Structures are given as structure tokens and as C-alpha cells.
Amino acid sequence: MTRRSAAAILAAVPMLLLSPKAMALIPDDDDEELIEKAKANRKSRLQTEKVAEKEYAKTGGFADSEVVAVQVAVNKLAKSGEALAAGDLPAVAATVGSDAWVGEFQKASTGLSTNEDAKKSANAIFQGIGALESSAKSGSLQEAKKNFVTAVSALQTWAESAGIAASLKGL
């Protein structure tokens, strides 16, 4: 052992004896700065993920109000189909006869119909919905079923022509 190494060891001993807390590990839950930093990082990461999710929803068309209106129309027609299967014509008339969703669906179909095939199919949907409502109100179950099939077939054709069939559930 050289004089220099011995001097270094002797110089280090008092420092080790005088500052034992400097050698201790600080538990994470006692370090307020570290906790605040971790919370801030997590909050920032959540904000970034939220923005990314919104962007994904927009690109997938799920946040688009027009697609939402079409999905509502699909759901209403499905509900009226269930009522038709049960033979409940007043429920069919009530479901199909509400103007709010039909009006929103008309606006959406006008905006989403970018070609002539889609526009023709959209007209067929609304003719089918109107015929379904009138046959349900008149009490003709067979006619209502026929008009239901016409409306749903036109809706499927229109969704394919408009290019949104993949975005709809239950079609």
C-alpha cells in the first residue's frame, strides 16, 4: 500500500462517519419532488394518449356526426325489425315515425352520398322508410315486412356505395 492510497483512505473515513445519511437510499414515497415529477409525467402521458385516441377516432370516422346519424338509423331499423318479428305494428310505427332521427339521417346521407349510385340508394331508403311507416300505421303486417326488407336492402346498398359500410355495426 502506498502513501497516497493510505492518505486517501484516511481522508475518506471521516467523511463516511460524518455523513451516514448521504449513503442511505431514499425511499420513493418519501421524496416529494420525485412523486410530483412522476405525477406530472403520468398526467402528460395520459394527455398525449387522449389526443392520440381522438385522432384515431376521427380517422376511423367514429367521431363523425354523419356516421353517427347513420348508425342511429341502423339501430332504429333493427329495433323496428324486432317489433315486426313480434308482430307489434304500433311499435314499428312509433320507432320509424319519429322524425328526429329520419331528418338527421337524411342530412347525413346527403353529405355522404358522393356518387350517383349512393344518391339513388338514399332515395330508395327514405321511400322504404315512408312506406314502412304507412303500412305499419294501416295495420298491414305483410306489407310492413315487405317495406322493411326494401328499406334495409336499400340501406345496405347505399352504405356500400357511400363507402361507410365498414364503419357501421349491425348492418
From TrEMBL:
Residues spanning the signal sequence: 1-24
InterPro entries in the cross-refs: MPH2 (IPR038862), MPH2_C (IPR049072)
Domain Maintenance of Photosystem II under High light 2 C-terminal: 69-171
Entry keyword Cell wall biogenesis/degradation: no
Transmembrane segments: none
The entry's keywords: Signal
Protein name as catalogued: G12535 protein
